[in-house]
Design goal:
single chain; eight-stranded mixed β-sheet; alpha+beta; about 30% helix; about 25% strand; binds flavin-adenine dinucleotide; 11 helices; FAD/NAD(P)-binding domain
Length: about 425
């Protein structure tokens, strides 16, 4: 059965590295609020903060199904891109891309300021990012991305197999490209810090999944296991799981993907990992694998996708370990210290589910694997829209999610497409 809200089998490896925090209490009664937000991720926190800027006297309730740091926002690979993902890059629509990138880059600077304001230590550096190809399919994708970067006047470095090996210690890739427009963060630290800067008018209930939403007498009602919320305006910021509350189910799917971290590697091994100490590598294929080397000398791998269902823990561990060892045979005696799954809000054409879906019900969903900064921006803009302020034409800038057929046709189409792509792009997976 499809999960209605995230309830992951494995602990988040990034969060496990941090001191335990005490979550705010779960909701155990009926409460009224001016505004309620479902989901305390990048999008939800941005909505709450922006709404408070507009209406400082409003009582805002934030419901989070998991705990801050342990849930989905802490489970990503920590790439904070300042520019569009390669798949969004469009050399024929430079003005549109440039405008989107400008807004994303300003949002990232706001996030950095908030981190500073939180007083929390967050491991976050403008390390840039590699994109590397292991096959001809990957090489063609790199060439397209290079065309975009050139047309957009964005700086980058082309890297041969030897140059890549010298920098990251892997001979797996035949060529690559480095661009500086990316920060790398410890995501569980980041979301904890962003949570800490919420204003006092926001009350967050953790471990409180919203189970159902209804509209009665022009009010929205949220049902939770032991309580509920009545509000005039409701924001869904729960990404892939918005559809479980009856919204956008014909445009949105939950795609599970997995990540794992090694222990800190001993000096003898980290010496074999090339000259760069803190780097990230994004795949050239949309179903490909992501890699990172962290400041404390761990390797991270993120790989594989499952439609609407999390894989078994033992299979996740085995698959990620194999893929890591393929890329770094020198660490073949080292296993993964942690591995975990997370859900990505997937849309068929990469566009967004964004805007007022029904009177008083606002939604921002469909991160498509790149929503830490973009989600923050879209959350802020959604609050502007709901407050009646002028917002830019978001769907023109970032696209609008297209229709997908219902299951079982959708599931069959996903499985067929991913098998075909995995066959042709095997080396990139
Ligand atoms: C393994 C992995 C690696 C990734 N790497 C990157 C990366 O490097 N960079 C990047 O930009 N993106 C990455 N992503 C995608 C990234 O997670 C999203 O872009 C980002 O988290 C989106 O933020 P969000 O706030 O919109 O949604 P989410 O982070 O999904 O937050 C939604 C929140 O809603 C909560 N929620 C869901 N349903 C309910 C409910 N019914 N009731 C209450 N609460 C609910 C969830 O617990 C969650 O906290 C990755 C994803 C995964 C799984």
């Amino acid at each position: 059965m499809k999960p209605r809200f995230p309830d992951y089998q494995l602990r988040c490896g990034w969060n496990a590295l941090l001191p335990r925090r005490t979550p705010s209490p779960a909701l155990s009664s009926q409460v009224d609020a001016d505004v309620a937000i479902i989901g305390a991720g990048y999008t939800g926190l941005a909505i709450a903060k922006r709404w408070h800027d507009h209406f400082p006297d409003h009582h805002i309730v934030l419901l989070e199904g998991s705990e801050i740091g342990e849930g989905n926002p802490g489970r990503n690979s920590g790439f904070l891109l300042e520019t569009a993902l390669a798949e969004d890059a469009d050399a024929d629509n430079l003005e549109r891309v440039r405008q989107g990138n400008q807004m994303i880059s300003e949002t990232l600077q706001d996030m950095l300021r908030e981190v500073e304001l939180s007083g929390e230590y967050v491991d976050i550096t403008r390390a840039g990012t590699f994109r590397a190809a292991a096959s001809d399919i990957g090489a063609r994708s790199i060439a397209r991305y290079e065309t975009f970067l050139q047309a957009a006047g964005l700086p980058f470095e082309r890297l041969s197999r030897d140059e890549l090996r010298a920098r990251i210690g892997s001979s797996y890739f035949q060529e690559g490209l480095y661009s500086p427009h990316c920060y790398l963060a410890q995501p569980a630290q980041l979301i904890r810090a962003l949570f800490k800067t919420l204003p006092d008018s926001v009350v967050c209930y953790e471990n409180t999944p919203a189970l159902q939403i209804n509209n009665r007498q022009q009010k929205w009602q949220i049902t939770t296991a032991n309580g509920g919320v009545n509000c005039k305006r409701l924001f869904l910021a729960n990404n892939a799981f918005a559809k479980s509350l009856g919204v956008a189910s014909s445009r949105l799917a939950a795609m599970f993907t997995y990540a794992g971290l090694t222990p800190s590697l001993p000096d003898a091994l980290s010496d074999t990992l090339g000259s760069d100490q803190n780097w990230g590598l994004l795949p050239t294929h949309r179903l490909g694998s992501t890699l990172r080397r962290t400041r404390d000398n761990r390797l991270l791998i993120r790989s594989a996708h499952d439609y609407e269902k999390e894989a078994k823990p033992e299979n996740i561990q085995k698959l990620l370990t194999q893929k890591l060892h393929d890329r770094f045979p020198q660490v073949k005696e080292i296993g993964l210290e942690s591995c975990w799954g997370g859900a990505v809000g997937f849309t068929y054409n990469g566009g967004l589910v964004w805007g007022e879906e029904r009177p008083g019900l606002f939604v921002s969903a469909g991160c498509n694997g790149g929503g830490t900064v973009k989600g923050t921006l879209l959350g802020k803009l959604l609050a502007d829209l709901a407050a009646g302020n002028k917002a830019p034409d978001v769907t023109r800038l970032f696209g609008s999610a297209s229709w997908m057929p219902p299951d079982p046709i959708r599931a069959a189409a996903f499985h067929t497409a991913s098998r075909v792509e995995a066959f042709f792009g095997k080396a990139e997976m």
